[in-house]
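cron nightly-structures :: item 1 of 1
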Amino acid sequence: MGLNIAYDAQKETPAEPRRRTTIDLRSDTVTRPTPEMRRAMFEAEVGDDVYGEDPTINRLEQRAAEIFGREAAIFVPSGTMGNCIAIKVHTRPGQEVICEERGHIYNYEMAMVSHFSGCLARTFYGEDGVLTWPEIKKRIAPKIYYRAQTGLISLENTHNMAGGTVYPQAIADEICDSAHDAGIPVHLDGARVFNAATALGKPVKEVTAKYDSVMFCLSKGLGAPVGSLLVGSRKFIDDARVYRKSLGGGMRQAGILAAAGLIALEEMPKRLHLDHANARFLAEGLAQIPGIKIDPDRVVTNILVVDITGTGIGSIEFCRRLTAENILASGVNHELVRFVTHMDVDREGCAAAIEAVKKVVRP
């Protein structure tokens, strides 16, 4: 993206071979800000956001609310904080939160559902990470005084550990409509919801219209260095501001970060289809390698979760060997490895990753 140190051939000597570039497919969180983002950060107009006086933060929050068709938004340092705040606002201690068993809020947010909100996660498996209303309905607590009551349903779109899968719109809408009829709010962990919108060919406003709150990340596929946003009603965001402060999320002159976030929000969704195409290319190449199991037709966004059981190599050793070939990936468990495409990895990089995997699994 124009941020790599330029290679000067005149400085190379026969004893100093050209260094190979590392291709980082561990996550789309590793992206680096574009030159435009860096310039905007340098020039950002700032104030004290805790007093509501940072004009760049205010602009970012207003624009996010407009794009999602909501009354208000709040900037937070991370998606985890955004999810934690949303759960806290929607629930009270002693309630249950229904989510998919591989969901981020359950597995990767330090048990904050219980630690911060005092709630119990009620999890179950959904094919491709997708829950359906008939299955959710079975898990909603009956109105009995000695049962923890269902306080919230939380969905994840795209679903990270299910391989970047996308909720069919009709299923998501049915869940929201039916939950509301039952008096239960629905939160969306939409860390990569712009990827979902791209895959569905719909505006993100339409994809998320029926949720009570939405968290989305600027620092993943959209390429900003830091930050996420939480959107919802004015009352919801007013309450969220209280809990952001309690978690240490009042960042003062944060407009420096919001400046990059504005570019990420306005410009970067336009290029996400390229990451999706590269992920599909990568999946098709990996699927041809003996011992590697993945169905390219199920790769619809930028995440691949690959079964390496057939190679006879565990994920730790597999990733170690890849690192020796200047390719970075991450193990999900002993048998699964995740690859994530993003703006700092092009088609050539994906081809190099395929060749490296061939070498790693070669007997």
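cron nightly-structures :: done
Confidence is low (pLDDT under 50) at residues 1-19.
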